[in-house]
Structures are given as C-alpha cells and as structure tokens.
Design a protein that fits this description.
The chain is an all-alpha fold. Helices cover 51% and strands 0% of the residues. The longest helix has 16 residues.
Length: 82
C-alpha cells in the first residue's frame, strides 16, 4: 500500500470520483484469491476490502498498486510451517 492511502470515504470529502462497484469488487476478488499464497498482502487486502461500499478511483488505483507489487516481486517465497 502506498503511504498516502487512508481509510476514509473519499466520496464525502470530494477527493475522488466514484467508480462502478462491480469494477472494484472484481479487482478485490482477484487480490483475495492471491492471498491464498501471498501472505504479505493480507493487511492490504483487509484495508481495501473495507472500501467496497464507497469505492472511488483512488481506491481502485491503490488496488492496482497492490497488484503491481505482486508483479514486481514474483520470487517471494511461500511460507510453509510444519
């Protein structure tokens, strides 16, 4: 997550425009599926999923930021505990 991301409603403050909820839920679903093997994005997924009722362009851009992190770090190992 970027350091400028905050968990506030950007619609009420007028800081960003809304996007279709289906578009945001689709990318959040993709990230949720990736948390099965990428435990390093669990916190980001938790924060982003709290915004599904008032999704804006800034929230969508932040979710793309998480996906870019995964693409740039494909070699991070999976954590297996026995």
């Amino acid at each position: 997550m970027s350091s400028t991301f905050v968990a506030e409603n950007y619609i009420e403050s007028g800081m960003s425009v809304t996007i279709p909820i289906k578009q945001y839920q689709t990318i959040i679903g993709d990230i949720m599926w990736l948390t099965i093997t990428r435990y390093d994005i669990t916190h980001a997924m938790s924060v982003l999923s709290q915004k599904t009722h008032y999704c804006t362009q800034r929230d969508y851009d932040e979710s793309k930021h998480v996906l870019m992190y995964i693409l740039k770090n494909p070699g991070l190992p999976l954590a297996y505990f026995s």
